[in-house]
Amino acid sequence: MPVISYANAKGGAGKTTAALLLATEIAQRGQSVIVFDADPQKWISKWADLGNRSDGISVVSVVSPSSIAEQITDARDQADYVIVDLEGTENLIVANALSVSDLVVVPIQGSSMDARGGARILTLISKLEKIVRHDIKHCVVLTRTNAAVTTRAMKAVQDFLCVNGIDVLYTPIVERAAYRDLFEFGGGLADQDPKKVTNLKKARENAALYAAEVLERAKEALPRKRWYEFYKRAS
User: Which SUPFAM superfamilies does the annotation name (predicted)?
Assistant: First the structure.
């Protein structure tokens, strides 16, 4: 029932990886997910075509500016969670999807270009809030970070977000081979072979912590009536 969208006006920010990690973590918990693949690259659709898809995940590949809001609204009644992977730009599909989202996650790498792309989405959210006349909860997740080193560029991005009072997830998404392997071999992290994937245990721990933070924010973002319905469904 919660709708979680991933957006950054710059491509290559790690949106698709972040969206897929959340979807597979939810499915691992035994809950159902509908993923809207609104990115022209269609990486999540290609992931689904590989087979070994985690049970409980359905992928919708065909969307349009005129239909996406209605599609997302209808999907709320069909799954426990709806996840939307949006194009790395600003267009009508992005705006329409954000307007019906309960939570918008803005992935940002440690670069000024990603920060500027993320800032454009945050500005768009602010404009949409005036149109829909309600708050659209949003947060930033830092992506493709180095587990051992914080670069100068990453520190600059963190400082920028802090100064502007932007909600940033405590758990960043660390650069891991296991995450790339999902798009090569399908399935979720639980389906990967620890003998063939380096640091799989750490990747799973990172993904679980990241997903827990996102889901907690998604629950907080639900209107009271829908939260009660979601609670009954989850129980």
Answer: P-loop containing nucleoside triphosphate hydrolases
Interatomic CA distance for residues 83 and 5, integer angstroms: 6
CA separation for the pair 233, 187 (Å, rounded): 26
- 217 and 137 Cβ atoms separated by less than 8 Å: yes
Domain count, the chain: 1
Return the CA Rg of the chain. Answer: 17
Q: Residue written as tokens 């977000």?
A: 161
pTM: 0.89
Tokens of 157: 């991005």
Q: Is there a contact between 142 and 13 (Cβ–Cβ < 8 Å)?
A: no
**Distance between CA atoms of residues 77 and 61, nearest Å:** 19
Question: Would you say 60 and 39 are in contact if contact means Cβ atoms under 8 Å apart?
Answer: no
Rounded Cα gap, residues 114 and 120, in angstroms: 10
Query: For residue 182, how far is the Cα from the chain centroid?
Result: 15
Q: What is the DSSP string of 166-214?
A: --B-SS-EE--HHHHHHHHH-S-GGGS-TTTSTTHHHHHHHHHHHHHHH
Over residues 74-108, the pLDDT tens digits come to 999 999 999 999 998 888 999 999 999 999 999 98
For the domain that residue 28 is a member of, what is the CATH number? 3.40.50.300
How far apart are alpha carbons 87 and 54 in whole angstroms?
24
